[in-house]
User: What shape does this take?
Amino acid sequence: MSSPCDPQYAPAGDVGAALMVIDSRLKAIYGGRTETDPAQQQLIDQFTASLDRRGVQDLLDGACTLIFMFMKWLRAAYEDHDKDVIEYVVPNLVATMSMMPKSVRPEAIPTMAGLVVAAGTDLSPSLWRKQYGDWTEDEMNPLEATAFLLAEHINRLTDDRDFATRLITKALSSAEQD
Assistant: This one.
């Protein structure tokens, strides 16, 4: 019996837009800045301000799809070394988010850990989250931080600052060709 949280039932959302946001954050951090380039931030702000309710939902679903895809890659990488992805990723994620009180409210951390566990067990993060109602405003930064931290984790594992972005870009390209 399949789960109602099976990824086959989940909307992919706007993965490209979600990746744009995460990639700009990665480039800012790798560039030694704590903030995104002002011009890049203005573009992101203009884009998000232009979104209607459906567009916002697509962006949220896209971020969840990124989390799912990142965890799928991490699960395979850890399994290649006989390690459990949940054991190695979730505590690191929770500890890092706990050190980000301006961006991530403490009450959002369990939800983000749940999203990662759902993805790590091959469930759709967006459908898992949907069981508990609509997204809240207080979950927006933590959701972005979760996708960012997973991408950064992948980049550190591969010693390649663009690996996570290329991983998604290649997956999107091959999906368009199919």
